[in-house]
Structure formats: structure tokens, C-alpha cells
Amino acid sequence: MSEELLESFADNQFLEEPAIEFRGVSKTYPSGTHALEDVNIRINKGEFVFVVGSSGAGKSTFMKLIMREEKANTGVITVNGFNLTKMPRKQVPLLRRTMGIVFQDFRLIPTMNVFDNVAFAMHVVGKSGNELRREVSKSLSKVGLGEKARSMPNQLSGGEQQRVGLARALVNAPDLIIADEPTGNVDPNMSYEIVSLLTEINKRGTTILMVTHDHNLVRDFKHRVIMLDGGKIVADNAAGGADE
Ligand SMILES: Nc1ncnc2c1ncn2[C@@H]1O[C@H](COP(=O)(O)OP(=O)(O)OP(=O)(O)O)[C@@H](O)[C@H]1O
Ligand SMILES: [Mg+2]
């Protein structure tokens, strides 16, 4: 291959649009804890990334900065084309519309059935009527819960509840799904099922960022792995990398 061609390849790689970019980002909580220190990372659209590291390493803080649940003290964060550092508070809902969020503790509304829990996420962005019903049904079938639409959350297993959480995250067709230990409260089989679902969603183009403590998942699903320790990125291994 000619040198020019190689260079243009490299350029193209460089021009690939990032879903998430951190440049010199630090986060110190008001308590004085340095949760993240000088983090630099780039995650391109369409990637699936596991975020790992011991307790207190800064993983949840990293996720909260991406959702703009917390603000960085220094550095620049870009997510789905938004500059989070400069973004006024009233624009945060616009950012959130580009992402689906899956929580470790599911966070379903206990007084609403499965269908309404998912539909609620569409109401919030102003959708209603036939479009809403169609998309909610599609989303529930994707996670294998088409039959459970009328069930209440307390009638579901943990794994089923988390799949409702996943359907809710999916229903607005987000560019990015972020999940902080989504398998933390489900059994190992269901964990595999949830990550398989996320992997399928990723294959259709959605960027996925998932925090996990589960080494088996990280080993078996060959995705990029970012490791945090003491608020710093200490490893960043490409999908199916040399560690395998
Ligand atoms: N709201 C907060 N106020 C003060 N300190 C905080 C806050 N949230 C987190 N911290 C501290 O920041 C550091 C990083 O916490 P973080 O929650 O990001 O860790 P984590 O990697 O998600 O850990 P875990 O695996 O236990 O969930 C820890 O020392 C934690 O005590
Ligand atoms: Mg955490």
C-alpha cells in the first residue's frame, strides 16, 4: 500500500465522529474526593465499550458526567455532538433525548404496568397515539416481553424488570445507551441474555457503554474494555484484544 493511501486511511479514522470524547477531564466532589483525574478518551459511534475497575475507581462518576448528572471541574466533554461543559442546564433534556439510560436498580414506576412504563419514556419526548403504541410494542418484543405488557413490575422477575428497563431505554431510538451495572441485580444467565440483547442493539448501530464487575461477561463478549483505577484510565483494550 502506498504511503499516501496509508495516510488517508489514518485521516479517515481520525475523522470518524466520536460519540463521546473526554479531554483533560477531572471531577472533584464538594467533599474533596478526586473521583476522576485528567481523563482523556474517545469512543466512536457504533462502539460497544465495557467500563471496568474496582469499587470507587470512578466508573459511575464517568457515566454521570456523560449524562450531565454531574459536571466536570476541568476539561472538555463532548457527547453526541453536545459540548457538555458549555451546555446550560435547560439544554440537558435535549442531550438526554439522544441517549437511553439503563439503571442497576431498574427504576420502573411501581404503579404503572410494563407497557405504560415504556410508554412513559415516549410521552416525555412528546410522542403519543398510534406511533407510541407501535413503538412500545416493538420495543417490548425486542426484549422478549411482548406477552408481559399488562403485568405490573412487582409481578416480574429481576431479569424481566431489567428487560423492561432496556425496552424503555430503546424506545426513543437513541444513538447511545449507557448502563451502569445493568446486570448487577440479575442472575448470571439473565446477565448473558441482557448483554446479548445489548450486543444485538449495538450491531444495528447504537453505541453502548456499560459498566460491569462481571469478568465472565467481559471475557465472553469481545468488546472494547476501558479500565479505571483511582480516577484514571489505566487500560484500554480493543475488542477481542491481546489479553484474550
Ligand atoms: N456524590 C458524591 N459525593 C462525594 N463523593 C462521591 C460522590 N459520588 C462518588 N463519590 C466518591 O468518588 C469516588 C468514585 O466513585 P464512583 O461512584 O464513581 O465509583 P465506582 O467506580 O462507580 O464504584 P462502584 O464499583 O462501587 O460503583 C469514590 O471515592 C466515591 O466515594
Ligand atoms: Mg458505581
What does this structure look like?
The chain has helices at residues 3-15, 59-67, 92-96, 114-124, 129-142, 158-170, 188-203, 215-220, and strands spanning 18-28, 34-44, 48-52, 74-79, 82-83, 99-102, 176-180, 207-211, 224-229, 232-237. By secondary structure, it is α/β, with parallel strands linked by helices. It folds into two domains: 28-98 and 174-244, P-loop containing nucleotide triphosphate hydrolases (Rossmann fold, 3-Layer(aba) Sandwich); 109-173, no CATH class. It has a six-stranded mixed beta sheet, with helices on both faces. The protein has a four-stranded antiparallel beta sheet with strand order 2-1-4-5, covered by helices on one side. Helix 4 crosses helix 5 (129-142), helix 4 packs parallel to helix 6 (158-170) and helix 5 (129-142) packs across helix 6 (158-170). The longest helix is centred in the C-terminal third of the chain and has 16 residues, at 188-203. The radius of gyration is 19 Å and the shape is globular. The model has no long low-confidence stretch (mean pLDDT 92). Bound molecules: adenosine-5'-triphosphate and magnesium ion. Adenosine-5'-triphosphate (ATP) binds next to helix 2.
